[in-house]
């Protein structure tokens, strides 16, 4: 089967970086049309630079990187540097990337690429705030025609929040963008904390990853070690959750995920519950959105190890 066209919209970010390494290591599965970045975990300048750094580690200079929105549509900017380190890439040694971002703005790249693409031809993975996609939808509403599926890391139902008691970070960071995207009718698979908290590093998995010698495996191991430290000290939990690699793993192996039809609404008015996702399974009308409820975590790690080897 020929590689499927894929755009990754992200805010690297420790786990976004592991997601990129997984996708970059799978040229037989993905024809990565481009990587777009957005302000989120750290500033838009740093997320763009970090995507270029990971591109260098993965030796994928063939993939263009486009810098995107510098902040949320309406809410005040929040970042998650405390979870990802000042650079956004944990304690990874930072060398300036060998080549810079492309000149076009990420939103223009998304709109122009999707408007020109064949129907249902491009998959989109979003692992950061949904600002770029929301802006592309406003710039060119017909972009949905080209999207085969939109796999989003975001939201929470039974797990509660990770940035506040009731909200997951990507949705919290730009709730208005999330509201636009979830109401758009796009073919969305939402992979929230209910699923990603099932996919955590363990000593055994980290020993297996740590035994690999490739530059991408060594980088992923160091990034996940940092993630483990942060999860233990800030969240009091063991094992770094593989939030952002999950959308990539889903696109590679949807059989590893159990999804259910859902309608997802986003709180945008309340300061207390900003970014809360109301994930409703009692459907009043047909929906194009599915919610990831279960994941085969061993299967996800098997894919990660096999690809980074
Ligand atoms: O809540 C987890 C999400 O927020 C991940 O995408 C992580 O990178 C942060 O952006
Ligand atoms: Ca992210």
Description:
This protein has 309 residues and is an alpha/beta fold. The protein has a single domain (4-308), classed as Inosine-uridine Nucleoside N-ribohydrolase, Chain A (Alpha-Beta Complex), CATH 3.90.245.10. The chain is 37% helix and 17% strand. The chain contains twelve helices and ten strands. The strands form two sheets. It has an eight-stranded mixed sheet, sandwiched between helices. Strands 8-9 form a two-stranded antiparallel sheet. Helix 2 (44-57) links the parallel strand 2 and strand 3. The radius of gyration is 17 Å and the shape is globular. The model has no long low-confidence stretch (mean pLDDT 97). The structure holds alpha-D-ribofuranose (RIB) and calcium ion. The site of calcium ion has 10 residues, from helix 1. Calcium ion is lined by residues 10-11, 13, 15-16, 40-41, 127-128, 244.
Backbone shape: globular
Distance between the termini: 22 Å
The largest sheet, given as strand count, sense and whether it forms a barrel, is:
8 strands, mixed
> How is the CATH topology named?
Inosine-uridine Nucleoside N-ribohydrolase, Chain A
Structural class call reads alpha/beta
Bound molecules: alpha-D-ribofuranose, calcium ion
Radius of gyration: 17 Å
- Helical run tally: 12
Mean pLDDT: 97
Task: Give the SSE order as H and E letters.
Answer: EHEHEHHEHEHHEHHHHEEEEH
Biggest sheet: strands side by side, in what order?
3-2-1-4-5-6-10-7
